[in-house]
Amino acid sequence: MRTSNKVIITCAVTGSIHTPSMSPHLPITPEEIAQEAIAATQAGAAMVHLHARDPQTGLPKQDPALFAQFLPTIKAQTDAIVNITTGGGLGMTLEERLAPAKAAQPEVASMNMGSFNFNISGAAAKIEQFKFDWEKPYLDMTKDFILSNTFGQIERGVSELSAMGTRFEFECYDVGHLYNVAHFADRGLIKPPFFLQCIFGILGGIGPHQENLLHMRAIADKLFGDDYYLSVLAAGKHQMPFVTMSALLGGNVRVGLEDSLYLSKGRLATSNADQVTKIRTILEELSLEIATPGEARAMLQTKGKDNVNF
């Protein structure tokens, strides 16, 4: 694993998992997404991971026109690395998922590295009344949902986006996904340094136990040696403990309302910047330094903010 005395903080601003009824602070409109991303950067995030939503209902949408309403604002008002999802929303086609990144040609795009059961239906039971009709069916259908990321789909995604100079946040929800990254590396379709985002606590993926983080790092060390940077995110209440552990192991961190709606037990985060500020404070108290966007670019070898298409 490549280590640095600088920790990259990524902020995932809205995602496609949480629904508007779960928190009044979840950004929905392009204006809200831009404001949240800018504030997160000001709080210390070097990278912002971005989804879009229908501004009227909050339904996850991969319409490039929606992304075009907030990407230029974020670029103009921050130096952050923009990282665009190719995961999109649950049940979208590959064409829909890839469309915003292909249009915007960002420095970084996410890439899910394997198919697996993805169950968030339990969240529906916690909500007494939904604001919008789409929310409960969207959550309930995941009892029978497989998040599809076949080898053919991954190959298409990495090939088309690599041709634009885009680098990747490789999202690994289980140990086998690390081996899938190695498969594409062995074929020469992706190039180091690899930014491996290990994800814990999604029902269907690897569980939120600290031993699993150590195991994921150990396997990544065997597969990639010094050719990768570790980053970690964890769902819900596991967020802060797991990302702190990542940093203590020499890795990087991801926070944001995509991954957890809370700042502490029973206390909703009122903004993405709240979570960035909290993890930055923790890291600095541990004498760890926070990477600037420029330092993160140098680490990840991205093409630079002036070479995007927005």
UniProtKB/TrEMBL annotation:
<dbReference type="GO" id="GO:0046872">
    <property type="term" value="F:metal ion binding"/>
</dbReference>
<keyword id="KW-0479">Metal-binding</keyword>
<dbReference type="InterPro" id="IPR013785">
    <property type="entry name" value="Aldolase_TIM"/>
</dbReference>
<protein>
    <submittedName>
        <fullName>3-keto-5-aminohexanoate cleavage protein</fullName>
    </submittedName>
</protein>
<keyword id="KW-0808">Transferase</keyword>
<dbReference type="GO" id="GO:0043720">
    <property type="term" value="F:3-keto-5-aminohexanoate cleavage activity"/>
</dbReference>
<dbReference type="InterPro" id="IPR008567">
    <property type="entry name" value="BKACE"/>
</dbReference>
<keyword id="KW-0862">Zinc</keyword>
<dbReference type="Pfam" id="PF05853">
    <property type="entry name" value="BKACE"/>
</dbReference>
